[in-house]
Design goal:
It is built from eight helices and ten strands. The chain is of the alpha+beta class. The strands form three sheets. It has a five-stranded mixed beta sheet with strand order 5-7-8-10-9. Strands 1-2-3 form a three-stranded antiparallel beta sheet. The protein is elongated. The structure holds adenosine-5'-diphosphate and magnesium ion. The site of magnesium ion has 4 residues, from α6.
Amino acid sequence: MEAGFRELKTQGSREVHESLVLDKAGNRIPVEIRSFAVYDGSRFLRTFSIVRDIREVKNLQNQLIHSSRLAAIGEISACIAHDITNPLAVIKLYLDLLQTQLQDLAAHDPAGAAGLDDSVNNLAKSAGKIEKLCLHLREFSRSRETTMEAVDLRGVINDALFMVSNKLDRGGVAVTKQFPEDLPLVRGNASQLEQVFMNLFSNACDAMQGRTPSLLSINLVPVFGGNRADGGGVEVRVTDNGSGMPATVRDQMFLPFFTTKPKGEGTGLGLTISRNIIRRHGGEIRGESEEGKGTVFHVTLPPWTPQAGPE
Ligand SMILES: Nc1ncnc2c1ncn2[C@@H]1O[C@H](COP(=O)(O)OP(=O)(O)O)[C@@H](O)[C@H]1O
Ligand SMILES: [Mg+2]
């Protein structure tokens, strides 16, 4: 401050500069300060400053940086997925070869072949998983168009679970699914819906960190008769026994960039994007939660009606 005043007295004004001030509660507020010196003739009288609260500007700047970084990450992962595909094809080719060679070996040394067979099968399984992940990542980043088709939510949810399976495994999450046999199809875009459920599962997993047991349950329920005429469709309920949300969080959870997670972990965009997607589908998403009591998200989607046809 003293250095600033000295400069001000000698030069008459100072460059606009940014600083932090504390509010009553002790929060740091970013401000922009413009200062001028007031003279009586050549005698310095006092200083005059305009202090502007620039919280909003700062927030917007940070959000912009964050979202462009996210977009970059999306593009990079699609590229990486693409680059992995070629060497992976070679690995799979040799695995096939190994498998045929093992069949030959089995004729001479059945015990030895059986031991190797297990290892090779495990390798093939993992390679298959990598392939599926890459395929998904590429589709995911490519799918900007929103063509609506008849979608079986069971497949969408299984794919979404597959995409976050590593995270769920690491968190020791037990997943239960209740899928009825005769579920109506919904009208939707599978890869966008997958994005919604991936986010819900991933949020649930975050909220259940450190909880034993961590329970995630997914229920699919036809609403009414499951046809459009009676206002029905399919409801997906995603229930976790995690931390739950206090009212302040619950009220803000759908706001863009609202997150309670540490920097670098949460983007605060998951639920915002999810709600946009669900609304574009003509559906609804809402969350019920109480602090310490876990959370249930309800996603309702309109049914597929053949006469409406694909878009
Ligand atoms: N299942 C859940 N349990 C508890 N809190 C949740 C749950 N889902 C979302 N939230 C809260 O809503 C916030 C916003 O979620 P989201 O938009 O997905 O952004 P992010 O996951 O990046 O924080 C989270 O930071 C969290 O506080
Ligand atoms: Mg999220």
